[in-house]
Amino acid sequence: MPRLPCVRPVCYAPRMANHNEISSFIWQIADLLRGPYRPPQYERVMLPMTVLRRFDCVLAPSKEKVLREYEKRKGGKLNDEALDKFLNRAAGQRFHNHSPLTFEKLKGDPDHIEKHLTSYINGFSANVRQIFEYFEFSNEIEKMREANILFLVVSKFCDIDLHPDNLDNIEMGLLFENLIRRFNELANETAGDHFTPREVIRLMVNLLFINDDALLATAGTVRKLLDPACGTGGMLAEAQNYLREHHPQAKLYVYGQEYNNRAFAVAASDMLIKQVDHNGTGENIRFGDTFTDDQFRGETFDYLLANPPFGVDWKKQQKFIEDEHNKRGFAGRFGAGLPRVNDGVKVDLEQRETRRLKFLLDANDGGVWGDDPGTSDVDVPVLRSTEQLLDGKWQIRDPATRSLTYDEFTKAQLKSGDVIITKSSGSSDHIGKTSQVTKEIEAMGCAFSNFMQRLHPSKKLDSTFLTYVLNSQIGREQFRFLSTTTTGLGNLSAEIIGDIEMPLLPVTEQRTIAGYLDRETGRLDALVAAKERWLDLLAEKRSALMTRAVTRGLEPSVALRDSGLNWLREIPSHWETKRLKYIASLQSGDGITSEEILESGEYPVFGGNGIRGYSSRFNHQGDYVLIGRQGALCGNINYATGRFWASEHAVVATIRGQDQVKWLGELLSVMNLNQYSQSAAQPGLSVDLVGNLSLPVPPVDEQRAIVAYISAETAKLDALRAATERTIGLLKERRAALIAAAVTGRIEVGRGKQ
User: Do domains 188-330 and 576-697 have the same CATH topology?
Assistant: First the structure.
């Protein structure tokens, strides 16, 4: 084998801002596989390569120490397992690599890249080698070699710095989870193997922990969770994310079993790559068919979380399952009984009794739209779906006035206690949004539009309880599943709405639950409203800070003079005023067809409102301010750096002298260029008009200081905003989980129990 050049074992790759940027870069590398691989097969290469690169960067600082330890102990009395323990200790990790190779060294001999990469993988400790055996990665190495892309893929991964100093374990976990989700969405092929959407997993996790908030908030709490059909580990990862966000003082040890080779390898990699305590292949993520080879027999867990393979039968495992049921009874897993053989659910779940909604209603009818005011018997306000918010609240500001016949108004007049559902919408988020008619709305004498459906509950159903159920994720998911689509609109019919399954509870219990949810959601809504007011204040402060900096400078006591500008009264006396066209040349971008704009690619394509996609071509290179030229949001300011394509919907501002790009962009943002738009078929900015606008211009060194000040101060405000938005998101998740848990009986709300 040819001798490789000596390269220090460190990560030389340029650093990227965050896991989202790195994920996008990895996604671009996947384009190299096009041809030999179909998109659903990209994960066979990209996930193992991401794992390899992370491990390479993690082990880089201890590489020399591990090699010295290996040279000292190889060929001695230690067996492989004992040797692994010594070398893991030298690496300071739960794995090691004793090969003299690194990713950088692999680049040194392109002609023998296949042999070197295989040798490098074989140098890992047994737990990592097992993962790559289950990845069946040797097959992919050979396939890439034959397609002459192996060296190119390895070289591209060398450009990614996955060292913990650049990307800590939490960020790396988020990166890997993001890649797993994206590749899984491409690879869904059979109903039983579908990847569970993240929002569904988050709801499941919220429901799982909702009763244990007080316990998990206690320092030192340790809990164990099992997913017996863990797939790629998404549910385990989300459960750990929940604890990290809500109860960082508690520990959650997660365990999983999976029988699909690649899915097992991904889940085991995820746990090992995050370096989570007490996790990793051979311990917490175990391989095998959970029906016939229970890897956790005799162990107990605090939580069980699983998405059973609905639509997949268990005929192949039937003998094993029936034997355990008959011989072990309740000492085994199937003592409660067995489901049908064509039902892949592994355990019988205790279900509340449910009933179709149509058996619990006195009325289920559609609305009216009528005619223009003054053309029929009576003019009345007609509520539309736009007056409904996603959480079921009303926002009635300017209801449409329509003219109805007396008969139409009599049939469509809203009464307190009616429940209104949006039955047609172009957005899946709005289909099925549900609101209750209040006494105040009844007093307005309203009707409801033909894009809505009215339900009048029978005596067996409380209106408020019904509203909570239908507006919860339990109801909305049924609406999404059952709705039909015509001409781009999602539609619900009276029949579909009537087929919705409802928890069947005594009406007194329904009212108790509704009252409890009124109180608790009201409390959460008040917290969200307070946080949203804080966001408004942060936005105001950000705007004021930027405006003062670019129009007055940073010196509070500076002498001022009249600016001579119609939009600005005074500026520092030593500043100039110039027309924009003398500061920067302005030129519209070039046309590009929608077919040429790709979801991923090498060069970003900028339109009037920011990045529209990517292209294989570029028409600009450098640092520029871009001004949106057309549309309702014309005048938007964006920055472009490096190579990019500017479309005809953007105006490219090229600085003529030493003035600062970022200073000019911040100043133009404050000026609100949208006010200068001219109406035609759609609003637009004239390049000549904008170029003739006069601007206050400080000296260049002062521009630099202004830019530095704005960057530092807005970074603080943006961090506060991001933290506040995360809190709002968590509060809204809590609200949704609370409603779902209450209406399905997961929490007891009577007699003060929660």
Answer: no
Q: Which two tokens stand for residue 587?
A: 């030129």
Sheet hosting strand 452-457, strand order edge to edge? 361-366, 452-457, 419-422, 434-436
- What single DSSP character describes residue 703? H
User: Do 642 and 621 meet the contact criterion of CB atoms below 8 Å apart?
Assistant: yes
For residue 572, give the amino acid letter. Answer: P
* HSE, side-chain direction, 13 A CA sphere, residue 303: 26
- CA 221, distance to chain mean position in Å, is 29
pLDDT tens digit sequence for 155-190: 999 888 888 888 777 777 777 777 877 776 665 543
The encoded tokens of residue 316 equal 């192949």
For 636, phi then psi, to 5°, come to -60, 145
- Chosen CATH of 188-330 out of 3.40.50.150, 2.30.40.10, 3.90.180.10, 3.40.50.170: 3.40.50.150
Q: What is the pLDDT of residues 61-90, one digit of tens each?
A: 999 999 999 998 888 878 888 898 899 999
Q: Are 577 and 565 in contact, with CB atoms under 8 Å apart?
A: yes
328: part of which helix (H) or strand (E)? helix 318-328
Tell me the β-bridge partners of 576.
Answer: 697
pLDDT the model gives residue 341 = 65
**What are the residue boundaries of the structural domains of the chain, listed by start?**
19-179, 188-330, 356-504, 576-697
SS (H, E, C) 438-465: CHHHHHCCCEECCCEEEEEECCCCCHHH
Tell how strand 361-366 and strand 452-457 pair up: antiparallel
10 Å CB burial of residue 146 (0-12, 13-18, 19+) is exposed
- Predicted model pTM: 0.59
Q: Is domain 576-697 classified as CATH 3.90.220.20?
A: yes
Sequence length of the chain is: 754
Residue 492 near residue 482, CB atoms below 8 Å: yes
Is the C-alpha dihedral spanning 606, 612, 618, 621 positive or negative? positive
Q: Please state which architecture CATH assigns to domain 356-504.
A: Alpha-Beta Complex (3.90)
User: How far apart (Å, rounded) are the C-alpha atoms in residues 493 and 393?
Assistant: 22
Residue 532's SS3 state is: helix
- Retrieve residue 39's tokens: 């998109």
Strand bridging mode 489-491 / 424-425: antiparallel
Tokens of 751: 């007699």
Beta-carbon count within 10 A of 641 CB: 11
Residue 145: name the closest of 111, 172, 101, 182 by CA: 111
